[in-house]
Amino acid sequence: MQTLRKILFGLLCPFFLFTSCLGEGDLDCDPVENGLTIKFLYNINWGFTNRLPEVLDFIDLYIYKESGELYRHVHLTKEELVATNYNYYTILPDGVYDLVTWMNNGDCYYKESNNTFADANVRIVCDGDYNITENTTPLYYGYVDRQSDDVYEEENARIEIKDGKYTPQPLIINFAKNTNH
After folding, report:
1. Tens place of pLDDT for every residue, the chain, 181 residues?
2. How wide is the angle at C-alpha 151 spanned by C-alphas 147 and 99, nearest 5°?
3. Beta carbons within 8 Å of 58's beta carbon, 6+ residues apart
4. What CA–CA distances, in Å, run from 10 to 14, 15, 22?
């Protein structure tokens, strides 16, 4: 029996020595070194101050594989984000991902099929004659912060996870208000 324990210990020990992150919520996992940390903010306003705490109800984050297939949808409440100082941490397999982020995407908005990146659209619910019958809540869309305007217009929020992490950390997603609201 002792020999069997030694063999099992010898086989399992290297696995634990070479893995620093086991998954979401792993307390021993340093988000600066591993995985992906997303910092959310909203500073596109007259004062250029972070007004996210004032406007946030919830955030929907859609993570798509490079193939366009939905990998994960995460619904983050205000309470969850306040508790993490408006950060979200996750572990993703190595690869390229497209992120779609909506804030306060409530019932007055129709969500297209979110199963593929190409269909990740939102539009205002209206009657059959394209009339808006109610006052809609403000809608905000997220984009990768600190990109020039010409890059922003041409590029999706695309990230690459390499060797189990995204560099540089954190990824900053800033929100802009949909002015067509």
Report:
1. 555 454 444 444 443 334 444 444 444 455 555 789 999 999 887 888 899 999 999 999 999 999 999 999 999 999 999 999 999 999 999 999 999 998 888 766 666 677 888 777 776 666 666 666 666 778 888 888 765 555 544 456 899 999 999 988 899 999 988 766 4
2. 75
3. 75, 76, 77, 78, 103, 104
4. 7, 10, 19
Q: What token pair was written down for 140?
A: 């905000």
How many residues in the chain? 181
Phi (first) and psi of residue 127, to 5 degrees = -80, 180
Element of type H or E holding 57: none
The contacts of residue 73 (CB under 8 Å, 6+ apart) are 60, 61, 62, 63, 114
Identity of residue 125: V
Using an 8 Å Cβ cutoff, are 173 and 38 in contact?
Answer: yes
CA distance 181 to 178: 6
Distance in angstroms (rounded) separating the CA atoms of residues 58 and 109: 14
Q: CA 17 to CA 73: how far, in whole Å?
A: 31
- Least Cα distance to 175 among 59, 92, 91 occurs for 59
Mind giving me the DSSP string for 147-177?
Answer: --HHHHHH--EEEEEBTTB-SSSSEEEEEEE
Residue 72 corresponds to which tokens in the numbers above? 């994960």
